[in-house]
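Format is sequence with structure; example below:
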Amino acid sequence: MKKLLLISMVCFLLVITSACGNGNGAFQDKKTITIGMNNYTENIAYTYVWKHILEDRGYKVRTVFLEKAGVWVGTANDDIDISFAPWLPTTDAPFYKKYKDQVNIEDPWLKNARLGFAVPAYMKDVNTTEDLAKVASDVDNKVIGIDPGSSINGLAEQALKDYNLKSYTLVKSSEAAMLSELRKAYDAKKPIVVTMWNPHWAFADFDIKYLKDPKNSFGDPDNIYTMTSKEFKKTNPQVIKWMNNAQMNDKLISPLLSQVEKSSNPEEAAQEWVKKHKKLVDSWTKD
């Protein structure tokens, strides 16, 4: 009887402890939060920022690397709780159209994110997308893109059609491979065309420029949003409130991206950023 009573008291205390949380607002549940991330520097950096913010407030956080399509599918299926990957209204429009009723799009965490074709500034006679026609042979009729299935690749292919650049091929690789090609060409002062977006640390490391897009093939600048699963929105309103409080801008994110890119441990680099910006982070998570 005493043993049964003791077991009951222990179970009761465990339930109470689980329900009460840690006093920092993380009282809804104690499950692991799964954040879906893709392999782009701005997404890696911001995901790790929030990983540390949430862990500091008593949550367990698991990060999962996926391609952009996988992030949307996983969130729609409640396998992913949060992602900071959606670029809207243009870049991820196909995904939004398909999954908009199965996910929640919260507030943007960064506004006026742009993408397009970019070239080194030393290509002085190439300033608009139409100008690519006259340098096709100089760049081996190639535009260096990123991951197959990425939204920017689809827009780049459409741009090549819109501007009748039939001789060009979009090389589908990865962000890392694209940047490697850019660095090799840049160091040798050779012409190159790449797909690019901002925020991106490349604008700090290379003197590159966007090509004007008078036909607006890449669309107007996007905002980058927080996306959550339907289930997560029901069970974690406090976390969503914190994330909707958060706003980044070029001044804040540029040094973060540079630190993450140059670090051998991107997660530690993001953690250092969180420590350095404690006052800002605390304002995001104020109850």
